[in-house]
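Progress note, project year one: complex with FE2/S2 (inorganic) cluster.
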Amino acid sequence: MADSDPDRRKFLQIATCAIGGGVGLVVAVPALQLISDPAGKQTITSPSAPFDLGPAERFRVGEPPRKIEIVAPVIQDAWTAARDVVLGAAWIRRVGPGANEIDARSATCPHLGCAVGWDAARGNYLCPCHDSRFAASGDKLTGPSERGLDALPVQIVEGRLKLTWERYRTGQSTKERL
Amino acid sequence: MVNPVTWLRERTALTATAPGTIEGGASVAYVFGTVLVFLLLVQGITGAALAAFYSPSSTDAWASVAYVQDQAALGWFVRGLHHHGGSAIVVIAGIHLVQTAIAGAYKKPRELVWWLGILLLVVVLAWAVTGMILRWDQEGYWSNRVEVGIAAGTPIIGDQIQKLALGGNDYGNLTLTRFYALHVIVLPVIVTLLTIGHIVLARRHGTTPMRKRAAVRRWPHQSLRDVIAIAIVFAILIAFVVSSGGASLAAPADSTQPYDARPLWYFRWLFELRELAGSAEQLVAMLAPAVVGGFLVALPLLDRGSDRAVRSRALWLGGLVGILGVIAGLTLMSFVRDGNSPELAERIAKAETRAHRARTLAKTYGVPATGGADIWSMAPMWRARTLYAQRCASCHDEASKDRKGPILAPGHKNRAWITAFLQEPSGDRFWGRTKLAKTEAAMKPVELKRPELDDVVELIYAEGGAADVDPAKRARGVTLFESACSDCHSLAEGVSGSGPNLAGTGTRAHYTSFMSNPKSGVHMGADNSEMPRFDEELTVVERDAIAEYLVWLRTATKADLDALGPL
Ligand code: FES
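Model obtained:
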């Protein structure tokens, strides 16, 4: 009887495990590969051209920062091509009378990514999640954030404000583009 | 050091239910149950991976499946495994059933094991049906319509079944969400519970040995046979997936586009039976599965003796073989019938072209947020080309038999076109087919010779707003225009003459204006144009889209036009 030979039994056990393991790998590897596919891709894309935010002169010296939604005319989100999608918001403020003296800050908190609001009573920015405060200039005041609000690249072209939308890694002291 | 295996055994007390022994020795006949468990696990794993991509909404479903199929790494393979794995389950379950029947393993006291098995088979078949609709393509959509239609024919409760299945009065978001819930939560839980019950009972009773041999331990003797069988079945499955390129995906579901809906292959026999039954199809569709199911359920009650010898059970086994034979025969007939129809082959080829086009568009441009059925609108200049095909082509397209006006084709109003036109305005491709061409009012060929002719051409070409104008030639053209053309034509905005005003001819604005009212004094004039006004038939946006397309034609070639792809 086969059962009586321990060497043979051992061999059969190893063979069973080896074949079973091999089959298991062939099932698991493609499934894991598929699930991790989006991690290595830009799954949400929008045109990289700067967004037109209207005439630059509508921002005046001395006014508090204004929150402007950044609306992409078209984005591709995995399988969908959608129009007029809000990507995020920027706080815009004129810092001086010169044509180019406009400052834009991402409304995404550099701490852990909550949306930063303007506290009109105190004249500075407040992130509601963990109470980080930022000066009107964007500099960090108090709270856990390790850096000030991220400046977004802006340009004035023929009197119109053009803003380049970017995202940055949160939770660190240096500004790093994503 | 504690041995982790021992540790776990002690803590879980699992030793008590260790694999145990098999009466009469290990056998290949016993592998099928284990293979089925393996295939179910494959469905679970591939299903979980697919669910991480799938979006059960009528606007997104097809798009998300197309994304997995055509864009995600190995998506086609995982989806193929899931789809063909379902078929493999039906095949192996069939073999398992026949093997069990031959062994007489449904006899007392194993009736419950047998009945649980039959129930499992039914649930698994229903499971596949709930999966087919999820892809929301033509194939899944139309085959589901037929299936739900059959269910709706059930006396008394049919209407309620239909409303419940669709989640209301028609196919939409709620249809998908509920089939999705059935497919990924309800049925998997039911199948798991039934499978556990089936296995626990089967283990309690042990196998029904066909031969007298010594018992062996299940592990590793039977396990090795199981795992080899698993490897073989899986290898065949993979070969099938790879050779077929995975599961099919037709064009997005579209309730206005007819499609030759066919059920999954294991329902083909019912499809054929309905075809043969003619007006009795509804009755047959209900009765045939009931007869087959009834026979299987009744088998342990009919074949009661304790004798397991095949010969003494010839009647009942013969009945089973007969039923399977009829099913196989009907299935074959259905496929042969389809295979013999050239019209069907043509329609299938057309549907495949549409599917390919839809998937190419989805991969290149994404699917519009309004849903898969609008995928065609993602084609470049789709609106303009569709309108052109509907409203302009019959009078203006080279291929049209009833053409009445000038041909609108790549190169329209480029230098070569203008040159040829000036030399022979009533040529066939220009005004030749208009009534105007045969009258006194028709434009006469321009008698200028090169290089003067080229200068006039440059002037008119410049009106179209092209970037590559030669200013010197154009300037010379102005003088020549004065002497040769200005009797009939003007280049000053808004001035009418006996011929069309040429200011801005070839620009988007000019085309839009011309389309709006060709009979206007600045264009052809009231008496010289057969072309209808389009200012009320087409919206501003539509006219502008066509105009944009016509401007594009100027610099396009035939190859560019073909590259836009079909509509
Ligand atoms: S996310 Fe803004 S303070 Fe934490």
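The radius of gyration of chain B is 36 Å.
The mean pLDDT of chain B is 93.
No further modelling is planned for this target in the current period.
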